[in-house]
Amino acid sequence: MVIRSTIMDTNSFRAEHAAGLDPDTRRLTERRDTVLGASYRLFYRNPVHLVRGEGQYLWDASGRKYLDAYNNVASLGHCHPAVTAAVTAQMQQLNTHTRYLHENILNYTDDLLSTMPAELNKAMYMCTGSEANDLAIRVAKAYSGGEGIIATTEAYHGTSELTSGISPALGTGQPLAPTARLVEAPDAYRLGSTAGADGSELGTWFANRIRAAIADMEAHGIRFAGFIADSIFSSDGVLPGPAGYLREAAEVIHRAGGIIIADEVQPGFGRTGDAFWGFQRHGIVPDVVTLGKPMGNGIPVSGLVAKADVLAAFSDTIPYFNTFGGNPVSMAAAQAVLSTIRAEGLQEHSRVVGGSLLDALRGLGDTHESVGDVRGAGLFIGFELVKDRTTREPHRELALAVLEQLRERGVLTSVAGPHGNVLKLRPPLAFQPGDIDWLVGALDDSLTALYA
C-alpha cells in the first residue's frame, strides 16, 4: 500500500516523472535518491533547480527568472541585505551558545516582547518551529497536569515525536498520539449555511467542536492540556475567517483548564496585514506563542513566548538547553528581520498589496467557473478550485495541473487543504503591486490553457 502525505505528496516529483526530465535534472534527482533518505520530497513533476534569489524573485541553473508566490522562510525577501549584513558582522565577532552572557538575545527579546500583549512576557529560543511546538506541548502538559492536545484535521505543527503526533497532514503513515483529538477546521466556504458560517455563528460552530473533543477526552480518561492552531489554518486550506470569530473557542479552552498555543510560524510577523501576529486579528491572548521560519529570513531560529505563570510550571522544574537556540548570529538575523519589518512598513504593505492581490484574484472567478472561493488576509491567500460551484466539489486534479502550468509560466507556489485543491499563495513580503499582473496573468493563462 502506498501511503501519501497531504502536505508532502500532493505537489511532488515521483519516480514515474523521471522519463520526462532533461539530463541534468534527472541526474540530480538520481543523486538525491542515492544519498538522501526516502522521506524527502521535491516540488513539481519537473523539479526546479534554484541557484539564486533576490527579493521576491528566484533564478534557476539556466538563468530563468521565477516569481516566488509561496515562500515564507525568506519572509522579507530572498537574500535581504539587512539580514545578510547583520549575520556577516556577527559571524566575524562571535557565535556560541546561551550559557554565556550576550546582549543580542536580551535586546532581541525586549524588542520581540514589545510586539506582544503585555501578558506574554517570557521567551525561550530554539532552531526550528518543530522544536518550538514540541516545547509548547511540554509546557501545556506541565501547566495543566493533562496530556490531551486538540488540533485540526489537516494541521501541521512539526516533525518531532510530540509534534508529528498532532500533525495529521503528515499522512496516514504517521500515527497520531493516542491522547490527541482532531476537530474540523472552521471552513466558512465549505460549511456554508450548514453551520451558519458567518462571523459569530462560525465561532459558535467551532467552539462546539472543541467542546465535544474535550468531552471525548474526558470520557476516555484523558485530561485536557491544550489546543494548538495557527490562526489562518494554513494547512487546512488557508481559512482566515472573519476577524474575531475565535474568541468563543478561546473561552471554552480556558474554562476547561487548557491552554491556547498560537502557532505563528506561518501567520506571524505582519503576514496577515491586519495585525503583527495572526492571533491578534481575533482579539485573543494565547498562553503560548510559537515562532519559526520567517523569524530569521532563512537563518534557522525559532522561539516560544509565554505567560510567565504558564511557562513557570515547566521552566521552574526542568532545565532547558538548546545548543544553537538563541545564539548570537541567529539573534542578529532575527533582530534584522524585526527592524526591517518596521523600517519598511511591511505589515501595512502586506495589508494593502495583499488586498489588491485578493481583489485581482477574485476577478478571475468572472471568467473561470472552476474558481470556487478566494479568501485571505494580507499576503496570505487561498485560491480554491472546484468541479462545480453549486456542489463545491473539490478539483484536486485541476489544482495540480495548474501548479505545473504556473511553473512553466515562471510562478512558484503549492497547494493546501485536505483535498489538495487550494492554491496556497504566500509570497515573500517583498512582493510588489507590479507583481500582481504576473501572478494573476499566469493563473488566468493556466486555467485558460487547461480548458482550451
List keywords for this structure.
single chain, 452 residues, alpha/beta, five-stranded antiparallel beta sheet, transaminase activity, Aminotrans_3, PyrdxlP-dep_Trfase_major, 4-aminobutyrate aminotransferase-like enzyme
The helicity comes to 25-40%
Q: Can you tell me the residue ranges where pLDDT is under 50 for at least 5 consecutive residues? A: none
- Cα-to-Cα separation, first versus last residue: 36 Å
What's the structural domain tally? 3
Order of helices and strands: HEEEHHEHEHEHHEHEEEHHHEEEHEEEH
CATH superfamily of the largest domain: Type I PLP-dependent aspartate aminotransferase-like (Major domain)
Q: Measured on Cα atoms, how large is the radius of gyration?
A: 22 Å
Mean pLDDT: 94
Major sheet attributes: 7 strands, mixed
CATH fold type of the largest domain: Aspartate Aminotransferase, domain 2
The total of beta strands comes to 16
Can you describe this structure?
The protein is of the alpha/beta class and 452 residues long. It has three domains: 1-47, no CATH class; 55-76 and 346-450, Alpha-Beta Complex (Aspartate Aminotransferase, domain 1); 81-343, 3-Layer(aba) Sandwich (Aspartate Aminotransferase, domain 2), CATH 3.40.640.10. Helices cover 35% and strands 17% of the residues. It has 13 helices and 16 strands. The protein has helices at residues 23-35, 81-91, 103-113, 129-144, 161-164, 188-191, 200-219, 247-255, 308-315, 328-343, 346-363, 396-408, 436-450; strands spanning 50-54, 57-60, 65-68, 120-126, 148-152, 180-183, 224-229, 259-263, 288-291, 302-307, 371-376, 381-388, 393-394, 411-412, 414-416, 422-425. Strands 4-10-9-8-7-5-6 form a seven-stranded mixed sheet, sandwiched between helices. Strands 11, 12, 13, 15 and 16 form a five-stranded antiparallel sheet that branches. α2 (81-91) runs antiparallel to α10 (328-343) and α7 runs parallel beside α8 (247-255).
